[in-house]
Amino acid sequence: MRYVSTRGRAPDLSFEEAMLTGLARDGGLYVPAEIPVMAKADIAALAGRSYEEVAFRVMRPFIGEAFSDAEFEDIIARAYAGFGHAARAPLVQLAPNHFLLELFHGPTLAFKDFAMQLIGQLFEASLKRSGKRVTIVGATSGDTGSAAMEAFRGLDMVDVFILFPDGRVSDVQRRQMTTVAEANAHALALRGDFDDCQARLKDMFNDHAFRDAVRLAGVNSINWARVLAQVVYYFTAAVSLGAPQRSVSFTVPTGNFGDIFAGYIARAMGLPIEKLVIATNQNDILHRAIARGAYETKGVTPTISPSMDIQVSSNFERVLFDVYDRDGGAVAQLMEELKGQGGFGISQGALERLRGLFASGRCSEEQTLAMIARARAEMGELLCPHSAVGVHVAQAHLGVTPMVTLATAHPAKFPDAVEQASGIRPALPARMADLFDREERVTRVENDLSELQALVRRERVA
Ligand SMILES: *Cc1c(COP(=O)(O)O)cnc(C)c1O
């Protein structure tokens, strides 16, 4: 399996190379040269199998020669062993034809664990073979950083440094990063906001001498291996509800478009997905793009669903590549317009195809709070604000086809908003009940590139 860049001017790579590279050298994102289709009988044969078995069968064709079957089985087993639920991604029923896919039973209580835990094991296996260590640096507004710290803690071949804006992540999110005890994991509280964290991260990648010296690697949401890991739960959920004989629809709370793009891949592989609904909070660039045909940035408003507070959706480029007939030059031009003018118009043909692929909806702050309260009262479910955005939008798309809304985080990760809406302060699961008693280890850093680089060089294990 080869991977090509969405901008058409970077070399084709293998799975392993694309995973270790992240962003392509022409600024594009890697996508498979073609999507492997699963026969109906092979999809039917997933019924009743464990999450790990489904993961192996769904992801195997994308991996190529990178790992033997036994190695890949072992990688998957390690990745999901730390989850707090035997089903990994259990389904619960909300209403007659509406289901919630609980993606928050991983070690940091958000769906990002599905991808990050797998990528940690993939990196370790790949780097052990080459004998080369890497340094992972990431910037986070909360969920990604804690998932990365958990995934890479204690691995032999990796150091992980996570930059977060000092004082601007929730207590649970901060403690999930600062209470990791392993010597290879470093939580850095930067004096600044999330944009400062991202800017310094970008600076580090752009300093090629530094980048080579510490063998910098990235695991942000554009990494293809992360998207791939998320394809699996679309299969487990749909098969539980009767696929491939019966179609299923999904609604996905969306920020960077990684999670819903995984659903798009699942459908391209042959999973009968009827509707794929983009759910945004009031930062609704994606909803506006589908509704009006113009992709236009307009600044970010902070919301109670902060993991979806985005200005641009980086993974949207991947679907643009397809609806523009895989014309890398056309995509590169759109991205230039985005950079220069803050937006671009989508061509009529591409827009029609997008509307055939996705529905969309938006949920305001008031609607999010009301949905949390109503889900508690009428469905017996305590939703995190992101999941509430999804359930609210899904309700406009219910029909004869079963609807599955993705619950992207545990309510206890966002206790203030949940308590404000429902009057109930959600408790952490028992396995994490001591989070507030664990010792914190954090380095405060200035918003200064050379100070940061010196720290990374000094603190690396090797
Ligand atoms: C990251 C995140 C999202 C958005 O996911 P994307 O893949 O960026 O669309 C939604 N909810 C939660 C809780 C998240 O952490």
Largest sheet strand order: 3-4-14-9-10-13
What class would the helix/strand composition place it in?
A: alpha/beta
- Gross geometry: globular
State the major sheet.
Answer: 6 strands, mixed
Q: Class of the domain at 91-106 and 226-422, according to the CATH hierarchy?
A: Alpha Beta
DSSP strand tally? 15
- Measured as a percent range, the helix fraction is 40-55%
| C-alpha end-to-end distance | 33 Å
CATH fold group of the domain at 91-106 and 226-422? Rossmann fold
Question: What is the correct CATH architecture of the domain at 91-106 and 226-422?
Answer: 3-Layer(aba) Sandwich
Overall description:
This protein has 19 helices and 15 strands. It has 462 residues and is an alpha/beta fold. The chain has a domain at 91-106 and 226-422: Rossmann fold. Helix 3 (51-63) crosses helix 10 (224-240), helix 5 packs parallel to helix 6 (143-152) and helix 16 crosses helix 17 (385-394). The structure holds pyridoxal-5'-phosphate (PLP).
Characteristics of this structure?
alpha/beta, Rossmann fold, six-stranded mixed β-sheet, five-stranded parallel β-sheet, binds pyridoxal-5'-phosphate
